[in-house]
C-alpha cells in the first residue's frame, strides 16, 4: 500500500471555556505501519458529541483525559482498508472510539462491525443506532423505569437524545414534557414528535413555575441532559419516588469555575427520589437488542429523528461549538468521504430522517 498521509485535529492545550483554534490544530502526518492485531480505517463519518468537551479537560471522568499532543477523541464510522486482525477484512464497516481524523488505526477488539440494512444510511450507526438512540433507549427505560400514566420531563428535548426520550415516553404511555431553548424546537417536539407540552427555558421568567404549569401532576421521571438551573427548577416539581436519569450536564461543560449546586438537592431526600448516573457504554453487550427495537419503531413510523451532517474534516470545531449555542438541529455528524448516500444529498435519507448536508448548512444555522 502506498504511504498514506493523515490529517488529524490535535489537542494542543486544555481549553478554557469554548474550544478555539488556540486549543486544537489540524495537522497532517504520514500514517505509521499497522502492527499485529490492528486495523486501518478510512473514516467516513465522525460523531460530534458534547462529551468530547469533557474529555479535553483534566476533570476525572469515565474515560481518561485526551493527552496533549494526541488526536481529539471521538466515535467514528469508517471502512476497513487494511487489517492485521482476524475479525476484520478490507471493505468491512466498523464503528469505534477513534478521533477527528481522516484515517484511524485501532485494535480490532475495540471496533464494532456494522452492517446497514437496505435503505439505511451508514451514519445511522453514529445517531439512531449509535450513542444517541441507545442512550435514549437504555437511559430512559433502564434508569427512568417509566410507568404508563406517569409524567416524564426531558431537558435538551429538541436535541438528539432528548427528542428520542420524549417519543419513547409517549410509546410507553407516559405524558412527555420537553424543555428546549427556542420556539422552533418547542413547536417541533410538540407538533411533529407528539410531546404533550414544551417549555422554552431561555424565555421563561420563572422556570420552576413554568414546569409546575406544564406538569400539573408533578414529575415522575426527569431525564436530565443539562444540569444547572434547569435541574434546580425541576427538583422543586418532583413527585414522591421520582427518578432522575443523570445523562448529561451540558450547561457546565464549558464552565471555568467549579459548578455550583444543585441548590435544591434536599428534595432528593424529601421526596425519596432516585438519582442515577447513566453511561451508554455500560450497555454494550445489549446494543443489538436496542438496535432491533429502535429499527422496528422506525419501520412502523413510531419514532423520527434528525441528523445534521456537515461536510469536511476542517469543520469539526465549528460544528462542535454549535452544540453549546443550541444551534444544532439534530445529531451532529461530520462527513469525510462521499458514499453512496451522497446521491441523495440534501434530501431525506429515509422517511424517518431529515439530513441537512454540507458546510453551507453550517452557515445557515448560525
Ligand atoms: N451518559 C451518556 O452515556 C450519554 C451519551 C450521549 C449523550 N449524553 C449527554 O446527553 C446530552 C445531550 O447530548 P446530544 O448529543 O443529544 O446533544 P444535543 O441535545 O443534540 O445538543 C446539545 C443541546 O444542549 C442544549 N444546551 C447547550 N448549552 C446549554 C445550556 N447552557 N443549558 C441548557 N441547555 C443547553 C442545546 O439545546 P437548547 O437549544 O435546548 O439549549 C443544545 O442543542 C449531553 O449532555 C450529552 O453529554 C450522555
In short:
With 366 residues, this protein is α/β, with parallel strands linked by helices.
**CATH fold annotation of the largest domain:** Quinone Oxidoreductase, Chain A, domain 1
Multimerization status: single chain
Shape label: globular
Q: Name the CATH class of the largest domain.
A: Alpha Beta
Gap between N and C termini:
42 Å
Instruction: Give the second-level CATH assignment, the architecture of the largest domain.
Output: Alpha-Beta Complex
Element pattern in H and E: EEEHEEEEHEHEHEHEHEHEHEHEEH
CATH homologous superfamily grouping of the largest domain: Medium-chain alcohol dehydrogenases, catalytic domain
Unreliable sequence segments: 339-366
Task: Name the average pLDDT.
Answer: 92
How does the major sheet shape up? 8 strands, mixed
Class inferred from helices and paired strands:
alpha/beta
Helix content: 10-25%
How many structural domains? Answer: 2
Question: C-alpha Rg, in Å?
Answer: 20 Å
Content of β-strand = 25-35%
In DSSP terms (H or I, runs of 4 or more residues), the helix count works out at 10
Write the layout of secondary structure elements.
Blueprint: E1 5-11, E2 24-30, E3 38-47, H1 51-56, E4 73-83, E5 93-99, E6 103-107, E7 111-113, H2 131-144, E8 151-154, H3 160-171, E9 175-180, H4 183-192, E10 197-200, H5 207-214, E11 219-224, H6 228-235, E12 238-246, H7 267-270, E13 274-277, H8 287-299, E14 305-311, H9 316-325, E15 331-335, E16 353-357, H10 359-364
Parallel strand pairs: 8-9, 8-11, 9-10, 11-12, 12-13, 14-15, 14-16
Antiparallel strand pairs: 1-2, 3-4, 3-6, 3-15, 4-5, 5-7
Helix pairs in contact: 2-3, 2-8, 5-6
The structure holds NADP nicotinamide-adenine-dinucleotide phosphate.
